[in-house]
Amino acid sequence: MADERTRYFRRLGRRRRSARRWSVIAGGLGGAAAVLTPYAGLGVPDAAWAAGAGGALVLAAWRWADLRALAAQPAPPAVDPAEAAAHSRARLVAAVERLPVASGMLAEARRVRSRVALRGTSAAEPWGRLDRARSTFAGLRDRLTGLAAPAIAEATAADRSLRDLALRVAGVERAIRLAPPDTRPSLEQARETLAGQLHSGVAAYERLVAAAAGYVAENARSDVQEPAVARLTEATDLLHGVASALAELRASDPTFRTS
Fold first, then answer.
1. What is the mean pLDDT of residues 120-144?
2. Which are the contacts of 91, defined by CB distance < 8 A and separation ≥ 6?
3. How far, in Å, CA of 151 to CA of 70, rounded?
4. How far is CA 10 from the centre of its chain?
5. Could you give the angle at the alpha carbon of 91 between the alpha carbons of 86 and 94, nearest 5°?
6. How far apart are CA 154 and CA 183, in angstroms?
7. 231 in helix, strand or coil?
């Protein structure tokens, strides 16, 4: 997608070409009218040539006026190439995310990239636990209905917050390796505080997933018998009844045969 500066110069070029084109048309029609007009006066065909020349001349004047008005405006500033590339990439990702399958693939790619970025830091282990808990919760969320439905939004917000916290822990750890010796104690203390918050947050998220699993289990136990199980039970009772009836018939009539 072109930036504002590129679009401005494109519009300027289009108006310049249009003004020149109508100027040529007006000159051609005006010259033809001057040559073809008889000395005795104007006839109907000659009036058409003159009207066409006048209309083309007016349109050419309008096009030149539009060109001068646009040229008088300052051109938009040039866009930084890195910013333009980032904007284009963001637009492409947004377009891909609108596809049903691609959105999940992009989310998984982001998680993998973040997990690789955390490799070698103390945030990698809680990040892995968070990934496993999140996958477990994803299998339960469709069954969290009624009073348990708000837990879905809470889990989503907590997952996002904990992942951001893990990235901050990793960033502080990398900064400690480069920091001067006199600044490391304060950074170490900040890292320990953030790491403690991360571990406690992941543990809380795991407890939430366990509670969700307990809710789903208790809800299933309190539900009425599944229709499929009820139908299987009825079919089993029916077969038992038919078998008993056949046994009685065979006992009373040895010549009885089933087809």
1. 87
2. 1
3. 56
4. 31
5. 125
6. 37
7. helix
CB 239 within 8 A of CB 164: no
Confidence of residue 107 (pLDDT cuts 50, 70, 90): low
| Cα three-residue angle 182-186-190, rounded to 5 degrees | 150
- Contact status, residue 213 vs residue 140, Cβ threshold 8 Å: yes
The closest alpha carbon to 176, from 122, 125, 114, belongs to 122
Give phi and psi for 149, each to the nearest 5.
Answer: -60, -40
Structure tokens at 220: 């299933």
Query: Which conformational region is residue 189 in: left (phi greater than 0), alpha (psi within -120 to 50 degrees), or beta?
Result: alpha
Which of the residue ranges 63-72, 76-85, 110-119, 203-212 would you say has the lowest mean pLDDT?
A: 76-85
Amino acid (1-letter code) at residue 128: G
Residues shown for the chain: 259
- Amino acid 25: pLDDT: 84
Say how many C-beta atoms besides its own lie within 10 A of residue 246's C-beta. 12
- Residue 67: the pLDDT is 83
Give the mean pLDDT of 126-155.
Answer: 86
Cα(140)–Cα(48) distance, integer angstroms:
80
The chain-wide mean pLDDT, for the chain, equals 77
Q: Is the pLDDT of residue 4 over 60?
A: yes
Q: Quick one: which H or E segment has residue 18? A: helix 4-36
Distance CA 15, CA 23 (A): 12
